[in-house]
Amino acid sequence: MKIERGNFGSKVGIVLATAGSAVGLGNVWRFPYMAGENGGAAFILIYIACIFILGIPGMLSEFIVGRHGQANAARSYDKLSGGKPWKFIGYLGILTSTIILGFYAVVAGWCLQYLFASIVGQLSGDVQYVKAYFQDFSCHPVYPVLWGVYFILVTQWVVMRGVRSGIERASKFLMPILLILLLVLVVASCMLPGAVDGIRFLLKPDFSKLSGGVMLEALGQAFFSLSLGTACLCTYASYFTKYTNLLNSAGQIALLDTIIAVLAGLMIFPAAASVGVSPDSGPSLIFITLPNVFQQAFSAAPFVGYIVSLMFFVLLSLAALTSLMSLHEVATAFFEEEFHTTRKHAAIVVTTTTIVIGAFCSLSLGATDTLTFFGRSLFSWFDFITGQIFLPIVGFLTCIFIGWYVDHQIVRDEFTNWGELRGRFFHLYIFLVKYVCPLAILLIFLHQLGALN
Ligand code: PHE
């Protein structure tokens, strides 16, 4: 059976959908804190260098595999592999994105629950209250699972509608809203008394804080933030057209992703500084620290505080949704094409698998002890195995594949759109992908596993 493949209908759609994958919780809960703690603008400069050295070449490599293959990730790798088993990179990418989909949906469900809680005013109370609220909620055996399921169903609904009328349309609608919400929140936060201290914390360059470890952290963050190593970029690129300028698109996506990460910092730190709270990172930042910060910062005008909190959780939910869409699409495209089934059936299989993974992850956070292994919850195991092991492996092997194995004429054809573009940076790209990126990924890998500390 020959399957008619969809594709993205416009350049803007391509950039917004792919940036939607890249812009996620990582931009809000990880980047700002890393930047603030590790030298402010100095860190941001290093981060931008990492985007150029690793992010853009890595992204381009996945784009090349995907656009050349015009198929799901496993088949796309296979098409370039000359009968050798390189398609396992694709399989590993698909497995990785499915697992991430499961636990990312749990956290996305929390965002939705907090959005609801903001609307009905359940988040107001003192510090202890908000902390207890989060602990009670995240350990509850039923509610977080239901919110996660709900989120996955919304994701499925978008994905099932197809690439153009589902993913592209939703991204074109949601990404501008996300950006507007973010800008409004940045302005509100920066206008608070004492906000300057927060801005200074985020942006003041302090080069003395930059160490080898910090640089590796920046590399790791660049990698995760651009959704590298999950087959998301490869799958989306299989829907690009033959006119899509891969290098320009990668540059625009990386730029948007970085701007949004910096703006997230300008939303968080000024508000936190205005009430004298020092922000942290991860779930406790967005589910404990910030609800408190918003309450206190806008205590003179509680209604504004109410709106700010609501807008913040809408923002997070949107950021999570567009990332989930890309993760869902990876496995949906795989099932649809490899098992010759309809998109609807494929999407349902993926959703069901994800709900099972997500439910176990959620339950492992407190509802039961049986899902804790060697002192780590299942949630945390999945996070560890995908983030620290699978992602770097997929990224590393993709660079080796493109840099050392695939015929460079094919790579050049994709890079230049078969000679339409000048391809000025082609040699630089090949140099990076052959030597620099694999080495960088290897170092991140060893650093994350603690071998380089
Ligand atoms: N890039 C997303 C973020 O910053 C996370 C993500 C990783 C999404 C991999 C899809 C694939 O949060």
List of distinct ligands in this structure: phenylalanine
Which of globular, elongated, flat, extended, rod-shaped describes the shape? globular
- Computed over alpha carbons, the radius of gyration is 21 Å
Q: Structural class, judged by helices and strands?
A: mainly alpha
> Strand count, sense and closure of the main sheet?
2 strands, antiparallel
Distance between the termini: 53 Å
Low-confidence stretches: none
Give helix and strand order, one letter per element, not per position. HHHHHHHHHHHHHHHHEEHHH
Estimate the mean pLDDT confidence: 93
Count the E strands. Answer: 2
Task: Tag the structure with descriptive keywords.
globular; single chain; binds phenylalanine; 453 residues; 19 helices; 76% helix; 1% strand; mainly alpha; 2 strands
Give an overview of the whole structure:
- The protein is mostly helical.
- Helix content is 76%, strand content 1%.
- Strands 1-2 form a two-stranded antiparallel sheet.
- Helix 16 crosses helix 17 (378-405).
- The chain is globular.
- It binds phenylalanine.
- Phenylalanine is lined by residues 21-22, 24-27, 100, 224-225, 227, 230, 232, 323, 326-327.
